[in-house]
Every structure is written in structure tokens, then in C-alpha cells.
Automatic annotation (TrEMBL), chain A:
InterPro entries, per the entry: Sulf_transp_TsuA/YedE (IPR007272)
The organism of origin for this protein: Roseibium aggregatum
Name the record gives this protein: YeeE/YedE family protein
TM segment ranges: 12-32, 44-64, 80-103, 115-135, 162-179
UniProt keyword Transferase present: no
Polar residues bias (residue ranges): 203-212
Annotated keywords: Membrane, Transmembrane, Transmembrane helix
Spans annotated as Disordered: 189-218
Higher taxonomy: Bacteria, Pseudomonadati, Pseudomonadota, Alphaproteobacteria, Hyphomicrobiales
From TrEMBL, chain B:
Keyword Glycoprotein among UniProt keywords: no
Organism of derivation: Roseibium aggregatum
Subcellular location: Cell inner membrane
Keyword field contains Signal: no
TM annotation in the entry: 12-33, 71-90, 111-129, 141-166
Superkingdom of this protein's organism: Bacteria
Location (main, coarse): membrane
GO CC annotation: plasma membrane
Keywords: Cell inner membrane, Cell membrane, Membrane, Transmembrane, Transmembrane helix, Transport
InterPro entries the UniProt entry points to: Sulf_transp_TsuA/YedE
Protein's name according to its UniProt entry: YeeE/YedE family protein
Organism phylogeny: Bacteria, Pseudomonadati, Pseudomonadota, Alphaproteobacteria, Hyphomicrobiales
Family: Belongs to the TsuA/YedE (TC 9.B.102) family.
Entry membrane topology: Multi-pass membrane protein
């Protein structure tokens, strides 16, 4: 038995997607306010969840390779096109801050009942069509400053992979500590009640006692 | 009769679960998770329905149409899975509610305008970068690809700058 299976069938897609969607929703990423809270520093969930996920998967792939379970070049590694990817990252960051979602989280937003996420997806489709419209004139930029094929940080920096993983883990821990501190200072992070419960004025009125169940102790 | 939603998972738990889901995707398919690739295929398909000749002649969308049905792809099934997984999660945890999510001072009209403009920027950005937060940031980052970290740097820098400019929309 050799992994990866390189299975691109229906069941493979559905399984990957169901796990992905379920976890994104559980993280609170169907909520535009929780997502954008990252950039007002009130809610560090985007940083915390993404960084943890990247590191869990990166360490997992490293250990599987070390243990001989998977080959060195067995998973897809994107190739750098410096300017287009930097510009694309900037545009997605800007669009996320304004629109409240990225492509994956907008899908979770829709199935969480967010009408604004539907509008966001319509915007994405229009933006994609606009890109296709100007693709030919901007091809020079699109392919500019190509990096080596499938280049990874260990290749770029000339450092062993375990060292890079260790540094990233330290950065993640520092981000968790700093983020949690800033969240507390700003009255965050957003809870499920914060982002799902505001028209439940009925529920609010029932809370005639203090918010004991939420544990919001100053 | 429980009206209050169940709490979100703590970020460390959600992050670890997301990392395992990503690892499973790598082991099954040889690649990570994505989302904008589906939007591209959907856009090519819609464009093909609206203006078949123009779309086939287009240098970017054309190849998707000439290769057959643009939506017949792994990523379409993955996105259907995301919708199912997200829906089941939101419903079972009482975190699903029909609403226009916006800042306390933003009108519905303003929220829709921002959602549309933000979506359009993300649509363009995803095509320029050849991926989005999932495909490049998360999946690329997990392979320690330089491309993933260049993308993430751009994403966080622009996020902070633009967020400061549109602060009123959310607070």
C-alpha cells in the first residue's frame, strides 16, 4: 500500500470537503465578524487556527516522510510567481477585510445563513470574470519573477526542515500568547452567542441575572 | 427549546482538527484543500452559458470549456462537501441563522456593497495568485512552499491596512 492514493474521485472530494467545512464552521469561520476580528486584533482565531493547522499538517508530512511512509516529492507543492502571488495575496487580504470572507469561508457563511456571504460569492464570480477579461494584456505580470519549481522554505533558506518547523512553532506560540492578551484587552474573542444571537432579544431579556453562564467575569 | 448556540471550538482544537483534515486530504489525493479553483470553474461555466463564443475565445476561460465540462472536477465535489459539512455543523450546533451579518453601525445596503466589492477583489486576487487562503495559504503553507508564505505575507499586510481604513464597517 502506498500513500498518497492520488484518488480524485467523488468520495475523495466529498470526504475532504465535509471534514473541511465541518471544522471551519466549528472554528467560527462562517461568521464575517469573527473572521474580520483578526484585523482589528479583537479575535485572533484566524491566525491561531490557520497557524496550528499549517503546523500540524507540516509536521505530519515531515514525520511521514521521515518514517518512509510517503516519498519526498509525493504531494503537490505550488511554484512561486512572486509578483502575481504577492499582488494576489494583497488583493485577497483587502477583499477579506472589506467583504468579511475568503473563498472557503464564504461557502461556510452561506450554509450558516449569511445572506452577505451570497453577495460575496457573486462578487467573486464577477471578479473572476473581470480577471479573465484582462488576462491577455496582464500575462507578462502573471508569469513574472517565477521561482524554482515547487520551491520550499528549506531550499530557499538552506536550513534543515526540522529547524524551520521549530522556528514556526515558536512563532505560533508567541502569536497565541500575544493574541490572547490583545483579545482580552479588546473584549474579544467573538463567541457563538455574539455572532448568532442578536435578534434573540427574548433570550437577552431572560438573562435578568448576570451573565453567569457565559462566565464573563471582569 | 435551546435557543443559545453551542460555543465554537477553541482555536487550538479547531486548528489541530483542520490540520488533520488537511493531512487526510494530502494522503488521499496528493494535494491539499481549496476553494477558489471551484469559483474559477463556476465562473467559466456561467460565462460559457451567457456568451459561449466569447468564452471559448477567451485565453483564460477558453481551455476550461474546450476541455469539456468545467465543473466536472474533484474540487466541485470538495466544495459540495464543504457545504454539507458546514451546514450539518451549523445546524446541529444551533449556529445557523438567516441574517445579514454586519457591524452595528453598518446598513444592509452598505454591507452588501462591501461584500460585493470585497468578493470581486478576492475573485481577481485568487486568479492572480493561482489560489486562495485555502489552496495557497493553508495547503501551500503546510508543504512549506515559498509560494504559500509569500501569499500569507500579502494577505495579512493588506488585511491590516484595509481593515484600518474600513474600521467603521465592522465596529
Amino acid at each position: 500500500m502506498s500513500v498518497p492514493f492520488y484518488d480524485s474521485g467523488v468520495a475523495s472530494g466529498l470526504l475532504s470537503g465535509i471534514l473541511f467545512g465541518y471544522v471551519l464552521e466549528a472554528a467560527g469561520f462562517g461568521s464575517a465578524r469573527k473572521l474580520t476580528g483578526q484585523f482589528s486584533l479583537k479575535d485572533w482565531s484566524v491566525f491561531k487556527v490557520m497557524f496550528t493547522a499549517v503546523l500540524v499538517a507540516a509536521v505530519g508530512l515531515y514525520l511521514l516522510r521521515l518514517g518512509g511512509m510517503i516519498a519526498g516529492n509525493s504531494v503537490y507543492i505550488p511554484t512561486l510567481y512572486l509578483w502575481a502571488m504577492a499582488a494576489g495575496g494583497l488583493l485577497i487580504g483587502a477583499g477579506f477585510a472589506m467583504g468579511g470572507y475568503c473563498p472557503g469561508t464564504s461557502l461556510v457563511g452561506i450554509v450558516s445563513g449569511r445572506v452577505d456571504a451570497v453577495v460575496f460569492v457573486v462578487g467573486m464570480i464577477v471578479g473572476t470574470m473581470a480577471f479573465a477579461g484582462v488576462y491577455e494584456p496582464i500575462q507578462g505580470f502573471y508569469f513574472a519573477a517565477k521561482g524554482p519549481d515547487a520551491q520550499r522554505l528549506p531550499d530557499l533558506l538552506g536550513l534543515p526542515e526540522w529547524l524551520i518547523l521549530a522556528v514556526l512553532i515558536v512563532v505560533a506560540i508567541a502569536g497565541f500568547v500575544l493574541g490572547s492578551r490583545l483579545e482580552r484587552a479588546r473584549g474579544g474573542p467573538f463567541t457563538a452567542e455574539d455572532v448568532n444571537g442578536e435578534d434573540t432579544s427574548k433570550a437577552k431579556n431572560q438573562n435578568t441575572t448576570f451573565n453567569t453562564e457565559a462566565g464573563i467575569v471582569p | 427549546m435551546t435557543s443559545s448556540p453551542r460555543p465554537f471550538w477553541p482555536p487550538l482544537v479547531a486548528g489541530a482538527a483542520l490540520g488533520i483534515a488537511l493531512l487526510i486530504s494530502f494522503l488521499i489525493t496528493g494535494h491539499g484543500l481549496g476553494a477558489s479553483g471551484f469559483v474559477t470553474r463556476l465562473s467559466a461555466q456561467i460565462s460559457g452559458w451567457l456568451a459561449p463564443d466569447l468564452t471559448t475565445a477567451n485565453a483564460y476561460f477558453g481551455p476550461f470549456l474546450t476541455a469539456g465540462a468545467p465543473l466536472a472536477s474533484w474540487i466541485t465535489w470538495e466544495v459540495i462537501g464543504v457545504l454539507i459539512g458546514g451546514y450539518v455543523g451549523a445546524r446541529t450546533a444551533g449556529r445557523s441563522r438567516l441574517m445579514v451579518e454586519r457591524g452595528p453601525q453598518a446598513s444592509v445596503g452598505q454591507r452588501f456593497a462591501f461584500a460585493f466589492i470585497g468578493g470581486a477583489l478576492v475573485g481577481i486576487g485568487g486568479r492572480l495568485a493561482r489560489g486562495c487562503t485555502s489552496g495557497l495559504g493553508l495547503s501551500g503553507g503546510a508543504t512549506l512552499a515559498v509560494a504559500g508564505f509569500v501569499f500569507l505575507a500579502g494577505f495579512f499586510i493588506a488585511g491590516f491596512v484595509v481593515s484600518a481604513l474600513v474600521r467603521r464597517a465592522w465596529q
